Every structure is written in C-alpha cells, then in structure tokens.
Amino acid sequence: MKPFIKICGITNQKDLDFICSEDIDAIGFNLYLNSKRYVQLSDVKKMLVGMNRNIHLFLIFVNEDPDIVNQCLSQFPNAIPQFHGEESGDYCSSFKRDYVKALRINSETELKKVNQDYKDAKMLILDSYDDDHYGGTGKTFDLSLIKNKIDLPFLLAGGIDKDNFHQALNLKNCIGIDVCSSVEEKPGYKNHAQVKSLVEKVRSYYV
Asked: How many domains does the chain have?
C-alpha cells in the first residue's frame, strides 16, 4: 500500500504551494496558540484559496474549548480535526466527524488503554514525549515501545526523515509518516529541498 505522507506545521503560502506540488497526501495547520507554528484560521482560509489538489486537511488543536473547535470545523467542512493534547476519546468523538488523535509516547504510555479509548479514530499519530511541547520537537523515540502493540492505523511522527522513515513504515499498522521539524529551516518555514528528497525517497522505496 502506498504510504500516507503528511506535512505538518505549514505557516505560509510559499511553503504550501510547494508542498502541494509534491506527491503528498495531507497537510496540517497548527491552531494551538502556544505553538511555534501557530497560524490564524483566517490565514489558513486565505492560503487555501484556489488549491486544486485533493489533499487531506488537518486542523490541529490542543486541549481546546469545544465551542472553538466547532467554530473552526464549521468553516472547513472537509477538515479532519487532530487532537494533540490530553483529550479523551469521548471528547474527540463529540464533534461527529472523523478525527485523528496524536499521542506523545514514552515508557509510561498505556497502549492497551489507547487502543480502547480511541478505537473510533480515523488514525493515530504517535510522537515523541516532551514535557514542554505538544509535538514538533524533531526528537525520535524508542520504537520498541510500540512494536506490535498498536491495534489502530497510525502515522509515525518525531524526527522522521529520509534516513529513518523505513523503520517507521516497517511497524505493524503504521500506514505513513507525519513530518514537520525534520524538513524545516526554522520553525514554520520548510526546506523545500529536504521535503522533495524525503517524498521522493519514500515513494521510490515503496514502488
């Protein structure tokens, strides 16, 4: 199966146009105010005007008030909410549309509980644990922690690049990768050469 490639943390039109010209499946915009890659919803709307590719749109929230989530989703009927905080399964399901749950993984993560609590998720995103950041750290984590323990389809995040992506895609139920800081010049600004190289390597590896 063709791996799913998501490029996250987009903040500007130049990056969006380039990324959408590549063979990717999804883009992500961070609506979490404290993120280094925060972008206003009004700017997301402007950037997406005229986009003619059928690419999945992810809107990223962190422990957000449900009313605000609903307001955002009402403006993007086809968007997939990605919840990257401590949201419960009931909270995630309450918006009555496909959702993605991102989880920061460490040795204390209760994976059996994850499989049960988020069984209705479209997919999971598994990222490195960091006390101070909800993703986008560029740090990898010990993949043995999740090997054969995740029952749901998931994307692997956390320092995924052109040299280690195959380790992610060899994991049971891993359907793709979620890339952010590993293809950046600085937070919120992508290195186009690195994006292109990663996408080409993934696509050529799984012909």
From this structure: 1
The CATH number of residue 12's host domain is 3.20.20.70
- The three-state (H, E, C) secondary structure of 120-183, written as one string: CCCEEEEEECCCCCCCCCCCCCCHHHCCCCCCCCEEECCCCCCCCHHHHHCCCCEEEEEECHHH
The CA distance from 5 to 64, in Å, is: 26
Mean pLDDT split into 10-residue runs, the chain, 207 residues: 94 97 97 95 95 92 97 96 96 97 93 96 87 55 90 93 90 95 94 96 81
Q: Give this prediction's pTM.
A: 0.93
**Taking Cα atoms as reference points, which of 124, 136, 134, 11 lies closest to residue 63?**
134
